[in-house]
């Protein structure tokens, strides 16, 4: 494998103690007590389209979460003079949720100008997320790049998402620049991490560049290697326009704005363009380069990445992966890319049905910016009209709902997450004829009766865990408890182990990651990929209140865990459901068999309070009348559950 990997040979680590003014391509020197690097000013270029193809580089930064991607992006922006030193950190993390959580959740693009050997180069940088739930952002970003910077923390070493991102870049045949970051930390051990890269990816430790993005050490070497090692894009400027729409955002005044990579030809202001998906014509109103703020230009040419505004008013008109071309020309569409399939589903409902339209508009605009989210209409007797949304993971769900609140002022109700199960029904003349003998269910209310089911299948994943060896026993016990089957276990070095397990997705989506971090004191990392469906014994855990089925509270579980989860559910409901005038029996059943039961006692009026003595038969008579009244009421009364009860149960 090592012979085929495009690993770059780096210049030796340069000591930044000399004066930056002595560098031939340094135009402005900059020093501070913490950072020692030079800012290269950009020479004014009236027309970016004049930059030749051979002086364009498109690249991404990929790494595990919290390994310093955004900090490295800041240094690249400062060193190229795109932004001024001392500005706010994490410039490309523009969302409020990113700054609050300290993670990147949305890939951001920036065009940099860098002077090298007397020539101006255009470097298109895409900063990508590091968490597995946002791997779709990484996949889309790599589709328009020719190379990547593989960033690894010199302190933490190789993590699970580092492995996943490396192979994602390798499969896309991209040039890989391995870089070790945070060499300034007290506990940093670049030699140990270099050996990990050698063991896992067959990267020669002598070819790895060592930097500190925080202090600016070695950043100039990174830029030089981007220019000398990453190839220019293979495009044709003399051909007809073909542009890939790989990201989108919404502006309340300009409508849907498309971030495009121009594969062939050019696009200018006033051009009439057509999208291949919906065949609609648009007039180009604005063209911009992101630096990282918008810089208006009159023309974009092949090899460049830019933002197009064309009066696309409806968010539904923009399709990620679509091909844009001139309206007067017929072309073959670009291959695009395959979007990730949602793995976790949750119901989203407005707090009040009067907010339904506002929430719908917010979801439409946000899904334009996050194409990995799937949307289906859904209705609940308890919560009213809403949607069933699909996400790539639990963090993806949390970030999406947080953005709904922060960016659009919505107040949604989010039900407990679930996954999609595959069910094969017993063959009948009807379902065999129309091919409906296989169905997919992510809502317990749609789970068919057991007598109609022939087989049930649940989604499986391959989970990759990187952990210090002292936590190995506890982590293996956790995986076995979650019905995991070990695939492999290999030593990365003398202290770290990489494990692979086949795990059911339903056992992972809720709290697996949090539990893993707890038992490993935060040192273990986790990544997963979907592997399809596997036959499994799944059943519907139904919740009954006095014998009446409540579908909104039901769940789909594995048969071996039905009793345990049933006990937890009824115990929780006993505390949440308010007491009423009648006795309430809360039962969890599977195929009519009761797995667990709790009783909610009714309110009781003291009918004997007025008695002050006398014959005991009077007391017994009053109590008997009360018992008869309670029995009659229980026969005719409907248990009324307030809406807040459903919200409390479904959200937990």
From TrEMBL:
The keyword Membrane applies. NCBIfam families: lepA, small_GTP. One of its GO terms (cellular component) is mitochondrial matrix. It catalyses: GTP + H2O = GDP + phosphate + H(+). Belongs to the TRAFAC class translation factor GTPase superfamily. Classic translation factor GTPase family. LepA subfamily. Its main location: mitochondrion. GTP binds at residues 63-70, 127-131, 181-184. Residues 54-234 form the Tr-type G domain. InterPro entries: EF-4, EFG_III/V, EFG_V-like, G_TR_CS, LepA_C_sf, LepA_CTD, LepA_IV, P-loop_NTPase. It is a peripheral membrane protein. This is Translation factor GUF1 homolog, mitochondrial. One of its GO terms (molecular function) is mitochondrial ribosome binding. CDD domains: EF4_III, LepA, lepA_C. Promotes mitochondrial protein synthesis. May act as a fidelity factor of the translation reaction, by catalyzing a one-codon backward translocation of tRNAs on improperly translocated ribosomes. Binds to mitochondrial ribosomes in a GTP-dependent manner. It is an enzyme of class 3 (hydrolase). The keyword Nucleotidyltransferase does not apply. GO terms for biological process: positive regulation of translation; translation. Keywords: GTP-binding, Hydrolase, Membrane, Mitochondrion, Mitochondrion inner membrane, Nucleotide-binding, Protein biosynthesis. It comes from the Eukaryota. Pfam families: EFG_C, GTP_EFTU, LepA_C.
